[in-house]
Task: structure prediction
Amino acid sequence: MPELRRDPIIGRWVIISTERAKRPSDLTVEKSKSRGGFCPLCPGNEDKTPQEVFAFREANTPPDSPGWKLRVVPNKFPALKTEGDLNKRGEGIYDKMNGLGTHEVIIETIKHDANASSLTTDEFKNILLAYKQRISELKKDSRFRYISIFKNFGEVAGASLEHPHSQIIALPVIPKRSMEEFEGAQTYYSYKDRCVFCDIINQEISDGRRIVYENDRFLAYAPFASRFPFETCLLPKKHISAFEDTDDNIFTSMAEALSLVLKKINTALDFPPYNYILHSSPFNKNVNDFYHWHFEIIPRLTRVAGFEWGSGFYINPTPPEHAAQYLREALAE
Result:
């Protein structure tokens, strides 16, 4: 019998379609085709990107030259512009402001054909440390209220370049999706005086059926009310509200966890397109007691259609308990 399941954080309902449960082999994965040709993100083409704002480099190599391990550059075609002010204004009942913000690209490795299964733990650690550095730097700008960090892998997931990269967008407003999480977590905290994410961690560890991977510092699990097949959440076991407040000494454990989860997804699903998104605290808003940063990993195996758009419901043909079992068994040690 199909089940309706409610997300405990934002109250969103999903349909778990247990009667038509799909295994990984039943899901059609639309593969990206290699585009070939010139890549502006490869070593030797540093002059084809805007000037780097951060990099991990070999000693004594100057900015915007070969010798880097990871580079962060402004997006050549940014969604938002850094210059100017907000100039908030109304047009009748409609509100608008200037498109102020920052849009950066993290070039994750020098290797054009790398993917989550070929990157080392140290390379993943560099990526995560770069996220922390850029958030810490961008939050100094009082015009920004939220930083969105995300990765699109594969053309179906929105990647316009093949070279491994992720993106950072600084926003002058808090996105609606994030605000729903903050408000839901605050409501739960007001009622129970506990963090809902910490309670989820304790319950998932106790239950065990939806755990994908666990190490001493991090837990990856398939959410109880997963919207999509093989959707996975990764978060620290210790309560930390803001990603940039995470101690450097646990980044190796974080890199191991993120690396292994993505490798499991690649093994079980044959390198699907996916998105991952970092959810972290906004700036200038105290959510420390009740919010808990986390990564959301979404393989792109189904399409959102009319029912989902019109109702806000999602139909998931793979129960999260089944998905977690497949992923646990992939690359099982």
User: Anything to note?
Assistant: Residues 153 and 201 are 27 Å apart (CA to CA).
